[in-house]
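Saturday, quiet lab. Running sequence design on the structure tokens for the scaffold JK sent over.
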């Protein structure tokens, strides 16, 4: 089935991220002044305000920080309700908002804060592969 959800448009600041997802890599921006990773990509480090940003390949692993079950959505997402959105504590630092796979949205009590997750990528089109996170065995 064709991907029918919103597809991001890369900018000069996010192109390295999207280049990575096409290769199955989770690229993350890291400040070379304070060595901290931040998410989302931006021109200035939110921790120390340096403009010296590099891209590193992340582990693609993290933990569920918090989550919510979505019962209403628009467009292609409406076909997936209920589904779970979550903030992921990236192993490298900072948090990423995502749709969480591999969980039962109709049984929220079964979803555990702190659960180990791994990134995976869904091909939206030839240029954009969208990252999602899936709960995996700890
Ligand atoms: Zn910094």
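Result came back. Writing it out in full:
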């Amino acid at each position: 089935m064709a991907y029918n959800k919103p597809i991001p448009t890369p900018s000069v600041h996010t192109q390295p991220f999207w280049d990575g997802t096409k290769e199955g890599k989770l690229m993350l921006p890291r400040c070379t002044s304070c060595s901290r990773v931040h998410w989302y990509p931006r021109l200035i480090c939110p921790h120390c305000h340096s403009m010296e940003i590099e891209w590193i390949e992340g582990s693609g692993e993290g933990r569920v920080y918090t989550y919510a079950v979505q019962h209403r959505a628009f467009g292609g997402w409406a076909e997936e309700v209920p589904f779970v959105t979550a903030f992921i504590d990236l192993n490298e630092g900072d948090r990423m908002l995502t749709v969480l796979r591999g969980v039962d949205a109709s049984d929220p009590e079964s979803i555990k804060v702190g659960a180990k997750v791994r990134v995976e990528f869904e091909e939206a089109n030839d240029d954009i592969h969208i990252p999602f996170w899936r709960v995996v065995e700890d």
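Notes for JK: The pocket of zinc ion is lined by residues 31, 33-34, 36, 45, 47-48, 50 (CB under 6 Å). The chain has a mean pLDDT of 96. Ask whether to fix the surface positions before the next round.
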